[in-house]
Amino acid sequence: MGRRFRKPKLPQGDFEAQIQSLSHDGKGVARINEKATFIQGALTGEKITFRYTNRKKSYDEGLVTSVIEASPDRVQPKCAHYEICGGCSLQHLDSDKQIEAKQQVLLDNLEHIGKVSAQSILPPLTNDSVWGYRRKARLGVKNVPKKGKVLVGFRERASSFVADLTLCPVLHPRVGELLPQLSELVEGLSINAKLPQVEVAMDDEQCVLIFRILEDLTDTDIAAIKAFGEAHNIIPYTQRGGPDTVVPLSGIPADLHYALPDQHLELGFLPGDFTQVNTDINRKMINRALDMLDLNQNDTVLDLFCGVGNFTLPLATQAGTVVGVEGDEGLVQRAKSNAERNKLPNVDFYAANLYEELKPQPWLNQHFNKALIDPPRSGALEILPLINKMGIETLLYISCYPGTLARDAGVLVNEMGYTLVSTGVMDMFPHTGHVESIALFKK
Predict the structure, then answer these.
(1) Which of 79, 207, 306, 400 is catalytic?
(2) What number of H helices and E strands is found in the chain?
(3) How far apart are CA 388 and CA 347, in angstroms?
């Protein structure tokens, strides 16, 4: 038998630390005995005490227990549940300083990982309000007999437990102010111990809640959920298995869509589809993308990881020809429908797994002079050789993770001969460590 791995014991008590910087996910970074320690709740320049929450070979983790010398940028968190809830990690930092810190994370990643720097830095894209912005979310659900109720909310920080929430100020108020009522609804269901998740999906006006169920609902359960929906103007869906089991409880699908007013477009989507969580920042992000690409009718543009056409259709309002490519066949069908809905004949869509060897398709033989890519967190390393081979002169890269953007930027600049013209961040996820960014490359 192999030796059983034993997790090292954590030092007990409170320890003092001086915070040197912020990590990419918003934790304070201290060096203790020459070892990096990432401390939740600490800010750059602060002197704090903390307790250890985890120890690993190359780094440790901790949680602030008191602030001895506070940063001038420290603020009182708005949410009463902030100390325990893992939905946010930066409410203790002034919101203007949050986006500045994220800009610095992006620049540091580009320098240290990609070994590149931009010719110009764009001003961050922000909103007037940093609250109630979140229109997509997955909320945990847990029946906790010891507390005598069902908990509905985000997970506790560094834990699998569901946080005990009565209000969430970052969720859209339609949901963020409804958590106690949602808890009561689930508690009254016969399968309240077999309902682990509620997913939120909102368009500009409507709100869908997808109840993930591990057992079938009774007729009484169905009646209760329908009554809840009518009382709170919520459209209930259920999900019994995989993504294809997401169905409306009433049997009538919701017509979800969001507007892009500056482009006079309206895009439809299904509740389980990927859409941006922050509607206002998404609109500003699209406008910035169009400005940076500087399109005209002579341009042919390739949009990779196109989803339901969030960028593809705005591009088609200014370019001569646009092609969108996406790995999810369902999203491709929605994108095609959106092109028809908006009467855009100069755009085509194709389904292709961009992380595997591509099978012959017409778009692979087309000429494109410009491209936009919006890959998932894992980045776009696998598709960069194709972009280079196709002779694309201008590439706009939208990123949700600065580490993989920096890695890919290093390849584009240091191996493929592109120049990083400009880059900047967008406040898609206020109060969290998530960094949304944009970068323009040219040959």
Answers:
(1) 400
(2) 9, 22
(3) 22
pTM comes to: 0.94
All residues at 6 or more sequence positions from 423 whose CB lies less than 8 Å from its CB, including other chains: 106, 107, 110, 118, 121, 122, 437, 438, 439, 440
Tell me the longest C-alpha to C-alpha distance in the chain: 69
What does DSSP assign to residue 249?
T
The predicted-structure confidence for 280-318, as pLDDT tens digits, reads as follows 999 999 999 999 999 999 999 999 999 999 999 999 999
Decide if 325 contacts 354 (C-beta within 8 A).
yes
- DSSP-derived secondary structure letter, 214: S
Residue 219 reports pLDDT greater than 90: yes
222, 352: one domain: no
Query: The domain that contains 280 carries what CATH number?
Result: 3.40.50.150
Half-sphere exposure of 399 (CA within 13 A, CB side): 29
Looking at the fold, whether 112 and 183 belong to one and the same domain comes out as: no
Take residue 185 and report the two structure tokens written for it. Answer: 């609804």
Q: Say which DSSP state 105 is in.
A: H
Give catalytic status of residue 207 as yes or no. no
Residues 224 and 271 in one domain: no
Closest CA to 23 of 50, 57, 61: 61
Does position 2 have pLDDT exceeding 60, yes or no? no
Its domain, for residue 374, covers: 100-128+256-442
Distances (CA, A) of 222 to 144, 147, 204: 22, 25, 26
- Which H/E stretch holds residue 53? strand 47-55
- 222, with CB counted inside 10 A (0-12, 13-18, 19+), is middle
